[in-house]
Design goal:
With 292 residues, the protein is mainly alpha-helical. It contains ten helices and no strands. The chain has helices at residues 7-13, 33-57, 63-81, 89-121, 130-161, 166-196, 198-203, 205-233, 244-264, 267-281. α6 (166-196) runs antiparallel to α8 (205-233) and α8 runs antiparallel to α10 (267-281).
C-alpha cells in the first residue's frame, strides 16, 4: 500500500517529481496528460466562442460563460502540468480551486437565462419573480462557494503538513451539499415553469431550443454536483476521488457539455430572437413596421 507523503518529504523531493506507485500523492493517482490537454483545448475553444458571442451581440451577462470556461482551462492546464509534477501541492490546490469555482459562473448564467425567459412565457407561470432567481440562487452559490473554498483550503493545508484533513473536508462537503440542494430546488422550479408554459414553448421554435439547451446544461451541472458530493463524502482517499476516469466523465465532460450546448444554442441570440418574434406578434396584422 502507498504510504502518505509528509510535507518534509515533499519539500525534500522538490515541487516537481514523477509519480512513484510506492508513494501516495494528493490525487491518489498520476494525472493523465491526454485528458488534461484535450480538456484544456476544448474548454479554451468554448471559452473563446463565448467571448465572441458576448462581444458580437453586446450582451454583457454572456461573459459569465467565458469566465467559467477560463477557470476550467486553468484547472485542466494545472492537471496537465501535474502529470510530471504530481506531488506538487500548489498545482493540486490550483486545479482544485479552479475546478470547484468555475461551474458557479455557468450556473449563474443559467439563472440569468431563466430570469429572462419568464417574461416571454408569462410571469404567472413562475412561483418567483424573475429577479428573485438571481438574488436567491446567486447568493446561495456565493455562500456555498465560500464554505467550499474555506474547507478545501483547510484540507489542502492539512495534507501539505501531513496532519488531519477531516475538519476541512467536512466543511467542504457541507458547502457542496448546500449547493447541491440549491441546484435541485432550481431545477424543480425550472421544470415547473417550463411545464406550465409548455403551450407557449411548443409554439415557438426559439423558446423550444432555449429550454432544450438549458435543460441539458442544468442536467449536466446536477450530475456533476451529485458526483462531487458522493466523491467527497467518501473522503480524500475514497473510491471515486482516487480513480481519474470518474473525474473525467462526471466532472470534466459534464461541465464541457454544459458550456458547449450554449455555444451551439447561444442564449443571448435566442432571447433576442424571441424578443423580435414577440414584437412581430404585437404588431397589427402580425407584421413588423418594416414589412408593411
Amino acid at each position: 500500500m502507498p504510504s502518505p507523503l509528509t510535507a518534509s518529504r515533499i519539500a525534500a523531493q522538490g515541487t516537481c517529481r514523477s509519480y512513484d506507485a510506492r508513494e501516495d500523492n494528493p490525487y491518489g493517482y498520476p494525472p493523465s496528460i491526454a485528458p488534461g490537454v484535450v480538456f484544456s483545448l476544448l474548454f479554451g475553444f468554448s471559452m473563446l466562442w463565448h467571448a465572441w458571442h458576448a462581444y458580437r451581440t453586446r450582451t454583457p451577462w454572456l461573459w459569465v460563460f467565458f469566465v467559467g470556461g477560463l477557470g476550467e482551462v486553468i484547472g485542466w492546464v494545472a492537471r496537465s502540468v501535474a502529470t510530471g509534477c504530481s506531488y506538487s501541492v500548489p498545482l493540486f490546490q490550483m486545479q482544485l480551486a479552479a475546478l470547484i469555482i468555475s461551474p458557479n459562473f455557468i450556473t449563474a448564467g443559467i439563472y440569468i437565462v431563466l430570469s429572462r425567459l419568464i417574461p416571454f412565457v408569462g410571469t404567472d407561470k413562475s412561483p418567483l419573480k424573475p429577479k428573485f432567481y438571481l438574488y436567491i440562487f446567486i447568493a446561495v452559490d456565493i455562500v456555498s462557494l465560500g464554505v467550499q473554498a474555506a474547507g478545501g483550503g483547510m484540507a489542502a493545508i492539512g495534507f501539505a503538513k501531513g496532519t488531519n484533513t477531516k475538519t476541512g473536508t467536512d466543511i467542504m462537503v457541507a458547502g457542496i451539499i448546500f449547493q447541491l440542494v440549491s441546484i435541485i430546488v432550481f431545477e424543480v422550479l425550472f421544470c415547473l415553469v417550463t411545464f406550465k408554459a409548455l403551450p407557449q414553448i411548443k409554439a415557438s421554435r426559439t423558446l423550444s431550443l432555449l429550454c432544450g439547451a438549458t435543460t441539458i446544461s442544468v442536467a449536466c451541472i446536477l450530475v456533476r454536483s451529485i458526483y462531487r458530493t458522493i466523491e467527497l463524502l467518501q473522503g480524500w482517499r475514497g473510491y471515486l476521488i482516487t480513480r481519474e476516469r470518474y473525474f473525467i466523465a462526471l466532472d470534466g465532460a459534464m461541465i464541457l457539455v454544459a458550456l458547449l450546448v450554449y455555444n451551439l444554442l447561444n442564449p443571448g441570440e435566442l432571447l433576442r430572437k424571441a424578443e423580435e418574434e414577440k414584437m412581430v406578434e404585437h404588431t397589427p396584422g402580425g407584421r413588423s413596421d418594416d414589412e408593411k
